[in-house]
């Protein structure tokens, strides 16, 4: 039986090679990040004892309700992710496996990435201030807005910052709160001209919003498909494309008007 014996030896060698490859794959670091629902913060309130929004040069009103910006938390850019970790996260509802370059810019050190995230946050805050004051017809040379939110980077809080500034100065334009007293969360970049942009990580941000008591979630309209895929029960999803549109839906929510949905 020389042929059968030789075939058995070949199969045995192949099995050993496959097992070795699987072992290497299981131990080898992967270019992935694992993300989970992160912190949320009410931009109308304070964080760590410091008001998130401080305004001078114009009258500021007392607000009720909340406007919560939301985040995801991801493994550090230099973290080692193994196959077993990625498989576990893939099947978990409160975790997501993402290409590392989708979370962090490639080619930079941890410090450089942190600096870039902080720069994006600063640019987002500047755009939010310009968009809000432009909407209200106020001059940036007379009204000063300071936005303070430590340990958070990136541009995705732009929309909520803008709404927070407007609520603190003007509310709904008729003496009431823009929130209608609700706990409203949302995400989206903002341009100086008031255009809302996509951000990514929406399903995890929805979970963070629901966890922290939000009942309404504002989402860039282009991300509706991701947002509806795993929408938590009890969280109302409202798509927006512009600042004016976001203000319009908040007023409609408070007044019982028609509100768009994904």
From TrEMBL:
<feature type="signal peptide">
    <location>
        <begin position="1"/>
        <end position="25"/>
    </location>
</feature>
<dbReference type="GO" id="GO:0006508">
    <property type="term" value="P:proteolysis"/>
</dbReference>
<dbReference type="GO" id="GO:0004252">
    <property type="term" value="F:serine-type endopeptidase activity"/>
</dbReference>
<dbReference type="GO" id="GO:0004176">
    <property type="term" value="F:ATP-dependent peptidase activity"/>
</dbReference>
<dbReference type="InterPro" id="IPR014721">
    <property type="entry name" value="Ribsml_uS5_D2-typ_fold_subgr"/>
</dbReference>
<keyword id="KW-0732">Signal</keyword>
<protein>
    <recommendedName>
        <fullName>Lon proteolytic domain-containing protein</fullName>
    </recommendedName>
</protein>
<dbReference type="InterPro" id="IPR020568">
    <property type="entry name" value="Ribosomal_Su5_D2-typ_SF"/>
</dbReference>
